[in-house]
Amino acid sequence: MSIKNLKDFYTGLLFMLCGGGFMWGALRYDLGTAARMGAGYFPLILGGILSLLGVVVFLRSLVIGAPDSAIGRIAIVPMVMMFGAIAAFAVLLRGAGLVVSILAIILISSLASRESRLKETLISAVVLCTASVLLFVYALNLQIPVWPFFIRR
């Protein structure tokens, strides 16, 4: 069998790898049952769905061809910006609070695209900060610091 669509081939492999990793990681936690789910149940199911999707995409790459299935260059700068935004959120959440962390993740990740505009990014940041505070702090009553430690009461 030959590979007819290189993009789908590698996408399927990546999905299977990530899904398998989540499934393997979920096995370290209590799975429970469908009626009484443990901490590992949901990640195991999601990893299984992602792996199954990967198998479908992988098999499709062996059957269906595409006119432009060549692999282009890897976009290093956008990838670094996205991982950096996630890392900044994780580092800032405890000390700087939810609002600053969300502002950081949105502003840093917007640098990954040349098409992003400052006005749209700021509007998105304000809307997402407001929605996150309302949802996580007030509706779900999670104990997440909202503001930086020097502003908190």
How would you portray this structure in words?
The chain is mainly α. It is built from four helices and no strands. It folds into two domains: 6-63; 76-151, no CATH class. Helix 1 (6-26) packs antiparallel against helix 2 (41-63) and helix 3 crosses helix 4 (118-139). The radius of gyration is 20 Å and the shape is flat. The model has no long low-confidence stretch (mean pLDDT 88).
The total strand number stands at 0
Major β-sheet profile:
none
- Overall average pLDDT: 88
Derived from helix and strand composition plus strand pairing, the structural class reads mainly alpha
CA radius of gyration: 20 Å
Give me the number of helical elements. 4
The residue fraction in helices comes out at 55-70%
- The first-to-last residue Cα distance is 66 Å
Strand proportion, as a percent range, falls in under 5%
Query: What general form does the structure show?
Result: flat
What is the domain tally?
2
Question: What is the H/E string?
Answer: HHHH
Model regions low in confidence, pLDDT < 50 over at least 5 residues: none
